[in-house]
Amino acid sequence: MSSSGSKGSSLKVGRGGCPKQQSSRAVSSSKKSQVSPVNASSLVRNDVKYDEWRSAVGLPSKILGEAALWNESSPPLLRDILTKARRIPKWMSNLKSPELAHAAEYRHDETRRVCAVIEWHMGQSSSAFDMHDQGDDQLKAAICDITRVSRSVKQALWDSEPPNEMELRTHVDSLMNVIYPDDGGAIVHRLQRSLKLPKAGVTPAISSIQPDALDVIRLPEIRAYGEDNCVELSCYSGSKVPRVLHIVHCVTEYESLGVDGERQTLMGIASAMHHRLALGFDDQLVFGIIHTKIADFRVVAAAWQEGQIVVYNLDRFKLQVPIEALRFYLLIREIKRIGLGYCDAIEMAGSNLSFAAFDGQGIPNPWEPSASRSSRHSKGSLDDVDEVEEINSDDGAEIEADEESQLVWADLEEAVLLWRSGTDACNPDPKPTQGIDSDIELQRTDSYSGDQATQGQRANLEYLETPTSTDLEPSTVDQSLEIGEPYSNLG
Predict the structure, then answer these.
(1) What is the number of alpha carbons within 13 Å of residue 281 lying toward its C-beta?
(2) Which segments of 185-261 does DSSP mark as H helices, in order?
(3) Average pLDDT, the chain
(4) Rounded to an integer, what distance in angstroms lies between the CA atom of residue 453 and that of residue 445?
(5) Which of 188, 91, 168, 99 is nearest to 133 (CA)?
(6) Are the C-beta atoms of 4 and 195 separated by less than 8 Å?
(7) Which of 133-142, 438-447, 467-476 shows the highest mean pLDDT?
(8) 3-state secondary structure of 437
(9) Of residues 104 and 200, more confidently modeled
(10) 459 CB-near residues (< 8 Å, 6+ apart)
(11) From residue 179, how far is each of 173, 329, 336 by CA, in Å?
(12) Are 147 and 175 in contact (CB under 8 A)?
């Protein structure tokens, strides 16, 4: 990135929502010294600027821990997701069952570990898993991929060199593609798409972000989505968008250059939440997968509550442990189930000709600041910077940043304008939210009863995966001193 204080340097300017800017040679030296264009990757590294931005768009300062899931104020759907993600067929406890024959042959060690953990919990009458006698063809078909990913992550961690971001994401993306196969289904897994960000009225103004991966709901039945309004309705940044409406269901971000994926995941979630707000589906959840600490993956869920975005931690996984790779799969599969329900609801609403978001008149828009705040940023601000230059859509249409003209948006609906005029109007006496302590969370709840979390299950799961002299399993890689010197400074 060019430095704004260097003579003769060129300032990078916004592509998605701003006109082309003159080079820095035409800008006064005093102006250059005051403005430093940044993208989303730079914003997350600046604590002060990031806090200003996330407060303006309604993001929380902390992600709520699992205990908050059982408060009356939390969405009941979250508890339902966690409960159903515990359901597994009884044949998963028997290594010799016909359903596991293929996995037992080609991934014997990992499959054996999974069966042993499940069998132990059954003997203890544990609530970590809810066993049933029904078949599960999806799980039967996926078990080899689940154990393969677990083995691959473990091998990467035990290699002579520490795994980089791309090596880790390859395994996770492959598992996500198993859950969301690209076979024309309603939800697909996509990589590095540029999403619009709400214009928060703060400096610098970031207009887009490119998450590492997205799971998007495809809505080809929304006939009102067409050439006249596709740019306004699209979640993507740029002037060319897919031929069918896409709505983001889950955002994934990997740790990069020493910065974990939490802040960028939350920025992607903010984009998806404001997009749904504009379309009138602010009662729907948006999910995220956050990569931190070498091979730790957290799954979170976000909801609009009293004009603010509240983010809940659902669970945490170490994919090198086979049983946790299985639990990760089961949770993401439940999240997919929720997304399919959302798809049906949106298509039903879109078939209603009176549905405001699709009638082409007065489309609500969360990306344009209110009139009272727009004066704080001129439309030619040098701070307006897009993160992405060019990507390709999965529907054959190229998505690229617009260098020639600004996108023209309708005003926000009255309720959104009121919230935008000041977050204090919706929450005059905000209270600090409960955060996640990465060390304490290792002892977090691992299973759930009907009313509240049952403590200590994670300790039991990890106990059975503790390395022995003959059978090593790095279930706590970030804390182990036995995994080699290259990882001693990565925890």
Answers:
(1) 25
(2) 230-233
(3) 69
(4) 6
(5) 91
(6) no
(7) 133-142
(8) coil
(9) 104
(10) 443
(11) 10, 8, 8
(12) no
Half-sphere exposure of 453 (CA within 13 A, CB side): 20
Distances from the Cα of 55 to the Cα of 76, 378, 420, angstroms: 26, 21, 11
Strands 245-253 and 286-292: parallel
CA distance 343 to 358: 15
Residue located via tokens 């080899």:
144
Q: Provide φ and ψ at 72, rounded to 5°.
A: -65, -25
* Alpha-carbon span 427 to 416, nearest angstrom: 14
**Over the stretch 222-232, which tens digit does the pLDDT of each residue have?**
776 766 777 77
Do the beta carbons of residue 213 and residue 169 sit within 8 Å? yes
Instruction: State pLDDT tens for residues 387-435.
Output: 433 334 444 443 333 332 233 223 333 433 333 343 333 333 433 333 3
- The angle subtended at Cα 63 by Cα 58 and Cα 66, nearest 5°, is 135
Whether residue 265 is predicted with pLDDT greater than 80 in this model: the reply is yes
Which H or E run includes 288? strand 286-292
Q: In whole angstroms, what is the distance from residue 435 CA to residue 151 CA?
A: 32
At residue 378 the predicted structure's pLDDT band, cuts being 50, 70 and 90, is very low
14 within 8 A of 384, measured Cβ to Cβ: yes
C-alpha closest to that of 393 among 276, 173, 243: 243
471 token code pair: 């059978």
How confident is the model over 174-206, as pLDDT tens digits?
A: 999 999 988 778 999 999 898 988 877 787 778
Peptide bond into 60 cis (omega under 30): no
- 206 forms beta bridges with 385
Joined together, the tokens standing for residue 113 give 């570990």
CB contact at 8 A, 209 and 387? yes
Tell me the CA distances in angstroms from 444 to 70, 288, 314, 461, 483, one per residue in order. Answer: 14, 19, 11, 12, 24
How many Å apart are CA 391 and CA 191, to the nearest integer? 10
